[in-house]
Amino acid sequence: MFEQAFKNIDDILHKDAGSSSELDYTEQTSWLLFLKYLDALEQDRAMEAELEGRPYTFILEDAFRWEHWAAPKTADGRMDHHKAMSGDDLRDFVNIRLFPYLSGFKRRATGSNTIEYKIGEIFSEIKNKIQSGYNLREIVEIIDGLRFRSQTEKHELSHLYEAKIKNMGNAGRNGGEYYTPRPLIRAIVQVVAPKVGEKIYDGAVGSAGFLCEAFDYLKAQSGLTTGDMQTLQERTFYGKEKKSLAYVIAIMNMILHGIDAPNIVHTNTLAENLMDIQPKDRVDVVLANPPFGGKERKEVQQNFPIKTGETAFLFLQHFIRMLKAGGRAGVVIKNTFLSNTDNASVSLRKLLLEDCNLHTVLDLPGGTFQGAGVKTVVLFFDKGAPTRKVWYYQLNPGRNMGKTNPLNDNDLAEFVALQKTKADSPQSWTVDVSGIDTHTYDLSAKNPNGGDEKVLRSPEEILDEIAALDAESAEVLAVIRGLL
Questions:
Q1: What is the Cα–Cα distance from 69 to 62, expressed in whole angstroms?
Q2: Which CATH topology does 162-453 take?
Q3: In terms of Cα–Cα distance, which of 376, 378, 361 is closest to 422?
Q4: Which residue in 72, 60, 69, 62 sits closest to 96, CA to CA?
Q5: pLDDT tens-digit readout, 76-108
Q6: Three-state SS at 377
């Protein structure tokens, strides 16, 4: 049901002049889904209040509730096409009345952790890009037909929403930063092993994949009480995100996973001075894949003891500072971090080894991140004790990674199993830090067992990739021609 609905919505958006890419499709679907979700949440709360004999005040005024502007119904529950706006009337209502009203919640909300504030944030950050009111009417009717009140429905919808984010990540350069392969996130969560009651943080939240997977991991623990579930809902998951679209998608993704009012703040994490982070701000667990390759301005670099323009290196300093003593982290970073000879890289490795126990490095093969074109590693560290030994694991799935054969959970099963005891194997080895050169602090992942051999690609794979790149080029040219 959901899959066909999403496909139909994409087809309509593809025809609309206002949406030109997978990023736009996901953004536009998101705000409409959010309002439909909000309506379902309000209906449930109103029904609950009625059963308990207490009054319920709706968050949204009548004129702006889904059932009024989007889906007015006849007495028998069918869409009332006489009352339902369409065409320019609908588009103008959404642009001129609905969005300004909803964005106003940011000023009116009692606090930033309320659903009212989230409504205000979302509708201050995005705008309706659907130019045809007739297309908008069609999409509204598809979304109105979706039900996501039961856990099964929510699960299916969240699964498909993840697929949309993945497609968005594959759609282009700037989409790639939104998507970390879920099997990799699940393996990182398993190794870091968060517990109920701990604060879990991602300062580069993207589409909130780490927080959603951590929530699923904790929710699956046996013996959870009602109090535990409330702790998971309200006081466990925290994130920050700089970009508007990612911020909206993160909130929507967490809501669909079952977290009603996500603690996600729309801010540039790196604009915060490291010295301003107080003990009360600190967290137990950091799970993150910060953007790399970005260049931060001089005034942002002033917030950090180790000055560098490389975004990921600034984030790493932020994460170390954000952890409580004994806190644990799993952070994805470019593999060149382990060996770069510039002052910032050397100083940062020294800081990591002296202030934290960098106990595990997972070395990932090229192609793990589609479209990124860089090799990455995952650093697992605990704060508060220096590093004595580092256990390395070199992931070698025995095939070339790519769009058609991405990373899966089985690829990481051996890593997760061996990491518990940090056992040696053809793919894993241990390095004693006392033997490391203190001028360079080089931590390169060099497998002493000769596990570095390249997986040679078959001629079919190479030809497939050439064909895919040709098709992509043709699509881009067609778009450019359409603009001329």
A1: 9
A2: Rossmann fold (3.40.50)
A3: 361
A4: 69
A5: 988 898 999 999 999 999 999 999 999 999 998
A6: strand
Which whole number is the average pLDDT over 354-380?
A: 88
248/264 Cα distance (integer angstroms): 10
d(CA 286, CA 194): 10
Q: Which of 47, 14, 49, 48 is nearest to 28 (CA)?
A: 14
d(CA 46, CA 55): 8
311 contacts 345 by C-beta, under 8 angstroms: no
Domain residue spans in the chain?
2-149, 162-453
Show Cβ contacts of residue 393 under 8 Å, excluding neighbours closer than 6 positions. Answer: 360, 361, 362, 363, 415, 418, 419, 427, 428
Please tell me the predicted confidence (pLDDT) of residue 398.
Answer: 84
Pairing of strands 376-383, 356-363: antiparallel
CA–CA distance, 114 with 120 (Å, rounded to integer): 10
What is the identity of the amino acid at 221? Q
Q: Which CATH number fits domain 2-149: 3.30.1490.100, 1.20.1260.30, 3.40.50.1220, 2.60.40.10?
A: 1.20.1260.30
- Between 99-108, 149-158, 414-423, the lowest mean confidence (pLDDT) is in 149-158
**371 pLDDT band (50/70/90 cuts)?**
low
Cβ proximity of 163 and 177 under 8 Å: no
Sign of the CA dihedral running 264, 270, 272, 278: positive
